[in-house]
From TrEMBL:
Biased composition (Acidic residues): 167-189
Name the record gives this protein: UDENN domain-containing protein
Species the sequence originates in: Aspergillus tanneri
Disordered, as annotated region: 1-73, 136-195, 263-287, 471-490
CC terms in the record's Gene Ontology section: plasma membrane
Amino acid sequence: MSSLTLPYRPSDDTAAISFSKTNGLPRLSPSPSFSHARTPSDSRTSVRRPSVEHVAGVPTSKRRRYKSQYPRNSPERHVEYILVASFHIDRGPIMEHQYPAPISGDESMLAELMLPDQTHVRSQDWTIFFLHKDTSADEDDDSMTGRTKKKKKKKAERSPGDGGSDTPDEENDEPSEEDGESSDEEEGGEGPPETPLLLLALEDYFKNPYPETLASLYNAVNDMDLSLMPKLSLLERQILQSSNSKDMFIEKFEQMVQQRMADEGTPNDLDSPPSPKRPAPPRYTLPRDTHEYESRVVYSDIPIPVKVPTVIWPEIVGDFSLIKLIQTFSIPHTTTPQPFPIHPHLTTSGIYTHPIIVLVNAMLTQKRVIFLGHNRPSGEVAEAVLAACAIASGGILRGFTRHAFPYTDLTKIDDLLKVPGFIAGVTNPTFANHPEWWDLLCDLPTGRMKISSHIEPAPVTEGLLYFQQQTAGGHHHHGSNSQSDPTGDNLFIEDVQRSITNRYGENAIRAKWRAYITKFARVAAAFEETVYGASNLYIIGPNEELSPESPSGLQADPLDPTTLRGHGYVWPDEGSKQRELMASVSRIEGWRTTRSYYSFIQDIAAMYYPARPIQKPDLHHHHDRLRALKLSPQEAGAIYVSFAHAVKDYAGICQLLTVTPENQAGLFYLSMGMFHPDHVVREATVDLLERIAAHPAGRHFWSQLNRFAKLAFFRIKRERDAQSPVSLPETGTTGFGEPQSLVGVAMGGSMPRAI
């Protein structure tokens, strides 16, 4: 099978397993902190990699053709409309142009949305708003996003930038220049990510305020080529989002380029080494970081770089920073903490619950949330609203942006109050004086939050009565965990703040919040099973019992290791489970009546098979048992053997990798199976790890495995091969080449074998 020589841009990670020039033996990295491997049998010296279809060891006759996220022949456009608005000194906000056709809706309303209040007191500003076409079943797919940016003409300077992200169903709003009857305020185009492009477009529009200028911008943006961005599956997107590896799934980008060159009839000269005498600039290059796809927009013969996120989750809109939002409210709380009034839905850790947890609880229980930024740009409050939607969603839950108003003002208060559980951004301090308008006020300048005195009290629910009866009946469990933080929220926030201090980056923080929301949903499922006997948040797999007392770890079919029973979240002991459920009962019951809860149930049903190609056993549950419980050798061995029998193909390995993210110990707990007293379990674990290491994504997880585990891996491989001489090549070598010292393997060097 041939492949293509491409200009590869390596990540900061270097190879940890490469072939020796003398004997072709695999070398292991001295430490995962210094370098990273591909696979036990793969080399970094070439961009050639095993096909995805060969991961399970069963070759296919035809390589599967990858699809693009943004096909070249797709009728969908990057930009649907360009709107231009200006402020008329007598008529107020007016719509100047709509290209390529008028958009449905009230023009005056659109013009007002495009022009934030009090913009004249700032040198530049921008805002974002949502336009919903209709109320079809999939509301999110039928929504459009509008962004506006304001900039005074006299200060509109061309600023350097990388460009920015572009999302599906996004609507660019380019407001307009002034004319003789307008104010001195110039209204620019879309928000910060497209600043370089829009500054150029504004400059042209100031000179030629005609639809032809808008047409050139419209065509330039829609001509941006994103057709080489591969379409990832749900599991692949989860793996990429939780990984910091810059070349994760680089193979897919290579295959996209190979397909393009094959379609164009470009000759494949891989077998002939590149000659320095005939250098040729590459037409296609691989991304430096697969989390972002680099393209460009050519406007007025000026190429403007644009970075488009490879993975876009629900409720993730615009360019915002979770780190900025967390620090805004964490620093004042850390220096001078102020108590909150107790509300069961919000203050799950008492009066000193962390403000970010209060915010997330408010959004999960569908409270009315307002971000106030007095004397701040409207773009700043809009950013905070978008970040809040993302932090509560985690890329998992939906229903927040549908009722979000990134920026609004007093003229729209009547319409705002008709929306249940809105999230709004404002700059007018009048909102702070009307606690009946909101349930939680987030003051951006001071970094403080305030719970309204008019907030509705939490109702008494069946779940609350259940745990009150448990406590009154003397069933309160005392476990080993500290009771000061039964929900684990304080430890989680400390971990997030520590990661921010250590400069882990935005992607790592988003991955942590995704894990937090995932845990919340799993705890809520356990709550429903405990209180109501069954849960809407979990689909019971084959051979599983509906009872919350369903035994975990038992094998339904003695002849089938994959029929291992057990599902759901795992606690270290029963006391920890009861305390966490008791502490979370109010916010879980509050969430169970919200739109995000019912949307999540729909998503679980729709995404069950894409998200779980392996229905039995529950990989997440049993991996959590390895992580959290002290299992007997028999119990642990059953899990390792079950995983080895169940996880065989590409999709199955992807599913397993989603429950073993790199930032949560990776393959560490699986590798412990190589030290099991039963040789059958050890060999089954080696087989599983070998399949993972040959996987395009799994090779990154393998590279993070410590040297001790890798040493055990090769030792078991050699012991097994030594006991099966029939399977060895005639030369007497193992599957990894000539005999090599295990110390040399572990240290990454080649040492003579001791005799």
